[in-house]
Amino acid sequence: EFSWQSVGFANAVKQPFKSRESNPQGESMTQKQINAKDSPKQSTDSLKNDAPLQIYDLGMIPTPIAYFSLYSKIAQVDSSIMITGSHNPPEYNGFKITILKKPFYGKQIRALGERIMQRLGESNTDSPQNPQIAKLNALGEYIDFLTTHFARLKNFPHKVAFDCGNGVAGIALKSVLDNLQIPYLPLFFEPNGNFPNHHPDP
Fold first, then answer.
1. How many of the other CB atoms lie within 10 Å of CB of 19?
2. Residues with Cβ within 8 Å of residue 166, at least 6 apart in sequence
3. What's the Cα-to-Cα distance from 184 to each of 60, 81, 152, 161, 200, rounded to whole Å?
4. 94-99/102-103 β-pairing
5. Cα-Cα-Cα-Cα dihedral of 2, 90, 82, 174, to 10°?
6. For the chain, percent helix, then strand, then coil, each to nearest 5?
7. Pick from 124, 108, 133: which is nearest to 5 by CA?
8. Which residues does 94 contact at the CB level (< 8 Å), separation at least 6?
9. What's the distance, Cα to Cα, between the start and end of the chain in Å?
């Protein structure tokens, strides 16, 4: 669970949406939309504070859906922040960021780190008390896409074992396999951030 430090992150990460100078490629950033995965209230409040930023809550999702949502047919989304543990041990988590459908990495990450360090202690008293955050069912859209894309595998005759390592992949994979009527042996499909069965690194 995040402490007040998440406010420093949320305030800092807004900057690439607010100024052309913060984008090393020099591209104009005119659309201001973002999606949030399982975001703590402090982070979403802080992001909401600067209109016209639109926030979509994707809920608990596997990592590919954060990227898939950028091409959603049910909402216009062009940037994302995903709170993720990836395949790291449970004491670590982090953020996967895309801005205007492009990776956010290298010098951009270092600049963001500097902004966070500068703003960690800032108060956020002017954020709205009841921010309106829209839900976006990117998970359902992703499941439908995979079901259609792999339709040729329907009724696959051999049983397959899948080990999800108590990560989040199982919440999408189960539905796809059921839709395609593929027999399978599910191993550790239940999300559990303590990873009780084995290290989640695939």
1. 10
2. 188, 190, 191, 192, 193, 194, 195, 196, 197, 200
3. 23, 32, 17, 5, 20
4. antiparallel
5. -130
6. 35, 15, 50
7. 124
8. 83, 84, 85, 86, 88
9. 25
CB atoms within 10 A of CB 47: 24
Q: Please give the structure tokens belonging to residue 181.
A: 């009527």
What contacts 47, CB < 8 A, 6 or more positions away? Answer: 10, 13, 14, 34, 36, 39, 53, 55
Residue 26 CA to residue 35 CA, distance in Å, equals 23
Per-residue pLDDT band for 114 (boundaries 50, 70, 90) equals: confident
Collapsing DSSP to helix, strand or coil, 65 comes out as helix
According to the model, what pLDDT value does residue 202 have? 61
Per-residue pLDDT at 179:
98
Q: What is the pTM of this model?
A: 0.73
Q: Is 142 exposed, middle or buried, given 0-12, 13-18 or 19+ CB atoms closer than 10 A?
A: buried
Catalytic residue numbers read 86
| Mean per-residue pLDDT of the chain | 76
Tell me the pLDDT tens digit for each residue of 41-58: 444 454 555 555 678 899
